[in-house]
Amino acid sequence: MKARLLTATAVGAVLSVAVLTANVASAQSNELTLCWAAWDPANALVELSKDFEAQSGIKMKFEFVPWPNFADRMLNELNSGGQLCDLLIGDSQWIGGGAENGHYIKLNDFFAAESISMDDFAPATVYAYSTWPKGEPNYYALPAMGDANGWFYRKDWFEREDIKAAYKEATGQDLREPESQKELLQIAQFFQGREIDGQTVYGASIFTERGSEGITMGATGALYAWGFKYENTPGAYDMEGAVNSPAAVEALEFYKELYKTATPPGYDNAYMEQSLDAFKSGQVAMAMNWFAFFPGLAADPTVGGDKIDFFVNPAQNQPASTLGGQGISVVSYSDNVDGALQYIKWFAQPDVQQKWWSMGGYSCHVAVLNDPGFKDSAPFAADFLAAMDNVYDFWQEPAYASLLLAMQDRLHNYVVADQGTAQEALDGLIADWTEVFEDEGKL
Amino acid sequence: MTDTPIDRMTRATPRSVARRVRGLSDRAIAWLFVAPTIFLLLAINIFPLIWTVRLSFTNFAANRPGREVEWVGLRNYERILTSDGIWSNMQTTAHFLIWTITLQVVIGFTLAWLINRKFKGNDLLTTLIVLPMMLSPAVVGNFWTFLYQPQIGLFNYMVELLTGTPASSFSMLGAGGLAKWSIIIVDTWMWTPFVMLICLAGLRSIPDYIYEAAEVDRASKWRQFWTITVPMVLPFLMLAVLFRGIENFKMFDMVVLLTGGGPGNETLLASIDLKREAFEKWRTGYSSAYAIILFVTVFGLASIYVKALNKVKER
Fold it and tell me: Which positions make up the signal peptide (chain A) (predicted)?
């Protein structure tokens, strides 16, 4: 009797576990986890994805990580073969590592089978967010969120007669949206330390953050505008004369001058959040940040509406903007690859892309961007188009983290910590990058 | 006949277990108890250490599972020991260690010496002084970041009040030359109470009759201090220095929150640099060699120091 009871209990336990496992597996196949950074567009994507849930019956879960920890958290997840994310909207610089290390699924066959054409997306975004090796028709992501580094300013201050007169008197020029980097510096210096409505204000809030990518993303806005190049010949890794060209040295000296003479005190480790804080608290006349934040800024009750306007990163020797933005990839370790592909197929549809833009996401679909009404659809839409026509991105190599941290160190040492000259910083950067590429077997 | 705890335990042991254990020697039973700990020690400490030594001779990168792992011999060690950047980080670490320990010993001992006297409010003052060391380094790092803020920070405001230097004209965490002192100030503020407590224990362990004998011999207070107080507190003080030295050599959290190693690399301690190499740049082989060098350095210095400490205690 006792033996029979034990046997029955064991069989019951095994069956329970089997049923439970089947339920879990079934639940997993009906769920997708999308990983991204925690910011305004991510909230818009949550809303947008409700349509996908209704259509497909697949429940969407989201894992959003604050920007300062985003790369660390997600790259650790990929490197450990983690199954947290089925879909990942990862930074453009990760595409090389994602492809070469097998983290991302190659999407060419899927695109062909589902008639998704990369010609339907802006070429610059396809190149930057989807392809590896760069420019080759091997797609590891669908362009999801176009972005670039742009500028916004206190339009109400720029339009005040007393301030305009003071600027004219100080510089002999009219106060307007800057059309060159040097004009931007001049305006920022004009506002630095000025009293407006009883409050001391400052010129501009710029990126100086050291830990992740901040100062690189900020300073490259000047470097690209001066004509900075990573290599003399694309793909040859011949950096001498390109990275440390006289134009690059001048651009870096310019960025340091902008930081030293026209930014608020204490903004020595500032990135997206600090830039927004400085502007929203009425401390600065101008600020740089990613276009992704512009819808929120335009709607801000304190500094938005009529008080704000936007401009593309000013040209110097050439028009240029630092590329941001991301593509959406299917993680190869996902246990629901089919569901993830289904999401990408849904997301690639023109009407979904149109809705994405209307909700605050930056669509890369030509049907949205080429729409005649696009430029007037938001106060920053025309600037966004202008920026995306001339975007430049950082290395997208598998060893990008080492390359990026080396640049962070060199730039912060020179710009913020006053160590060495711009020439020494860029020469040192070539030495660091050469060592990385030697380790990679590319030099 | 009284019932001892061993008798009660023997009766409580199930017969099946008693049968199994009976026949084992005391030594075998001792090993039985110690074995799980030894196993865990080997699995968690010794094996990773040996594995790290092995990795340090390769170009292994944990984020590149597909890449062929090559044996590079002593190349990682050579690159680390000839790198200007690493030596600069070592100097930064040494600067931080020397100054924090010096300040904490001087201030901690002085506070202990003052607190050791009987006065009203002594207990309350002691409690207030030890408060900083009870805080989490994460909390300390965050609120000192605010205190050092040039526009709203209390620290800059106090400097302006005392010296007339405008508060917003300098940034403790962002200016070259000041940042390394800012982390020293915070660490000293937080950990001086720890040194003070150890010194206080030392001071209170000195019997009164020694001072009474010195009084009888007409020894001055100054002479009593140098010939009784200092030698008898010295072993305690050296222990405090050992603890603080080891802790500060691996200092990470508080400095990361305060400066992140910046501006530039001005406060980039060796431990922070090691973490960046290992888990941000993913140079696993290189960072393994780096970790071994740091381990040997700490182990070597600590061994020499412990020998000196034992000599002092034997006197």
Answer: 1-27
Q: Which domain holds residue A123?
A: 31-147+324-392
Residue A161 shares a structural domain with residue A250: yes
CA atoms of A289 and A366, how far apart (whole Å): 24
Do A268 and A368 belong to one domain? no
For A107, list phi and psi in degrees, rounded to 5. -105, 5
| CB–CB contact A210 B263 (8 Å) | yes
Q: Does the predicted interface ipTM exceed a cut of 0.85?
A: no
User: Structural domain of residue B273, as residue ranges?
Assistant: 84-314
Backbone dihedral angles phi then psi of residue A380, each to the nearest 5 degrees: -110, 0
Measure in Å the smallest separation between the Cα of A211 and chain B Cα atoms.
6
Residues A139 and A242 in one domain: no
Question: Does the pLDDT of residue A215 top 90, yes or no?
Answer: yes
| Confidence band for A161, pLDDT divided at 50, 70 and 90 | very high
Same domain flag for B175 and B238: yes
Local confidence band at A26 (pLDDT 50, 70, 90 cut-offs): very low
- 3-state SS string for chain B: CCCCHHHHHHHHCCHHHHHHHCCCCHHHHHHHHHHHHHHHHHHHHHHHHHHHHHHCCECCCCCCCCCCCCECCCHHHHHHHCCHHHHHHHHHHHHHHHHHHHHHHHHHHHHHHHHCCCCCCHHHHHHHHHHHHHCCHHHHHHHHHHHCCCCCCHHHHHHHHHHCCCHHHCCCCCCCCCHHHHHHHHHHHHHHHHHHHHHHHHHHCCCHHHHHHHHHCCCCHHHHHHHHHHHHHHHHHHHHHHHHHHHHHCCCHHHHHHCCCCCCCCCCCHHHHHHHHHHCCCCHHHHHHHHHHHHHHHHHHHHHHHHHHHHHHHC
Query: Helix H segments across A40-85?
Result: 40-56, 67-79
Q: A79: distance to nearest CA of chain B, Å?
A: 5
- Measured CA distances, B101 to A19, A342, B106, B239, B247 (Å): 62, 60, 8, 12, 11
On the question of pLDDT at A12 being above 60, the answer is no
pLDDT band (50, 70, 90) for residue B13: confident
Mutation site, B83, B145, B257, B265, interface A, largest A CB count within 10 A: B265
Q: Are the C-beta atoms of A24 and A77 separated by less than 8 Å? A: no
Mean pLDDT, all residues of chain B: 91
